[in-house]
């Protein structure tokens, strides 16, 4: 996604690190760059607002449950595939991975 306007910080960089911004997991200097970008880029600001709303909804609905590490890894892996533009079929999303069983 890009608004087509030149910015000091590129839209793709902002969107690639949006959750780091939302989770306050980036240095202050980078947070300041992102805040400045949101002030001048309405498409990125809109995406930020949407992701912030989803994060709040998930926290409200599921915030009290511990997420298993393997589930988190699967979700993050699929999100990364989607962000990179790769197609993720419905089967890939719903199918459990096959694991070898030791006898």
Ordered list of secondary-structure elements with their pairings:
Elements: H1 11-16, H2 18-22, H3 28-40, H4 42-62, H5 69-83, H6 90-94
Helix pairs in contact: 3-4
Structure description:
With 103 residues, the chain is mainly α. The protein has two domains: 62 residues, no CATH class; 29 residues. 63% of the residues lie in helices and 0% in strands. The chain has six helices and no strands. Helix 3 crosses helix 4. The chain is globular and about 40 Å long. The C terminus is likely disordered.
Task: Considering the chains and any ligands shown, give keywords for the structure.
63% helix, 6 helices, 2 domains, Anit_sigma_mycothiol_RsrA, Znf_put, disordered C terminus, mainly alpha, 103 residues, Anti-sigma factor RsrA
Could you spell the SSE succession in H and E letters?
HHHHHH
* Beta-strand proportion: under 5%
Oligomer state equals single chain
Number of helical segments with 4 or more residues:
6
Organism: Streptomyces spiralis
Domain Putative zinc-finger: 11-44
InterPro entries: Anit_sigma_mycothiol_RsrA, Znf_put
Protein name: Anti-sigma factor RsrA
How would you sum up this structure in a few lines?
The chain is mostly helical and 103 residues long.
């Amino acid at each position: 996604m890009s608004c087509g306007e030149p910015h000091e910080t590129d839209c793709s960089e902002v969107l690639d690190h949006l959750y780091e911004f939302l989770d306050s997991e980036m240095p202050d200097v980078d947070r300041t760059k992102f805040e400045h970008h949101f002030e001048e880029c309405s498409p990125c600001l809109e995406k930020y607002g949407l992701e912030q709303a989803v994060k709040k909804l998930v926290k409200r609905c599921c915030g009290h449950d511990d997420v298993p590490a393997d589930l988190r890894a699967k979700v993050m892996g699929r999100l990364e595939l989607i962000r990179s533009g790769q197609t993720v079929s419905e089967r890939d999303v719903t199918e459990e991975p096959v694991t070898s069983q030791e006898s």
